[in-house]
Amino acid sequence: MSKNLEIEFKNMVTEEEFQLLLKTFQITKKNFFSQTNHYFDTKNYSLKKLGAALRIRELSEKYELTLKKPAVNGLWEINDTISQSEADLLMKNSIFPSGEVKDELLQMHINLNEFILFGSLRTERAEIEYENGLLVFDHSFYKGIEDFEIEYETSNRDEGEKKFYKLLDKLNIKIQYADNKISRLYKVTQGKKDVSP
């Protein structure tokens, strides 16, 4: 289990801009790995109403159950590593594994039996260290849609923001607001617009 404060900046980019970023940082196909996020909420969107989000991240060798909650300067991210069988039980039968995420949801007074899996999103991702932070290159696929984004994860909001937008300016990349992934998937799945992290 881990709990950490997530501070990140995102920008949607065109495929052409994405290729420019890959070329600039010498990122090749071998630098990418695949991950699939499976997103959950209750039927009446209890988490969304609280500005929170719940997902299972499926990687090649492990599964992570993550709850994100609003914090003053970003998002609290609570993670539990779970087994494939625990992931399957949650996705198919809404049976929660024991851990910090379950405990936190109970403290939020949310009925665990009401959770449903409302969609999945696959991302081909590459990451590099950049200016004391992490630069993330994402090519995502969901519901017949493909999109591209660049993210910058940092521990200092003010410095990180300056570094991120300086990079976009240097490469003449247009600033384009990026909804988080659960929001993009949610809009396509449910046709709604007001969404959680």
TrEMBL record:
Domain CYTH: 4-192
SMART domains (UniProt xref): CYTH
Gene3D superfamilies for the chain: Hypothetical Protein Pfu-838710-001
Cross-referenced CDD domains: CYTH-like_Pase_1
InterPro entries associated with the record: CYTH-like_dom_sf, CYTH_domain, Uncharacterised_YjbK
Pfam family, one: CYTH
Protein name: Uncharacterized protein YjbK
Organism in which the protein naturally occurs: Lederbergia wuyishanensis
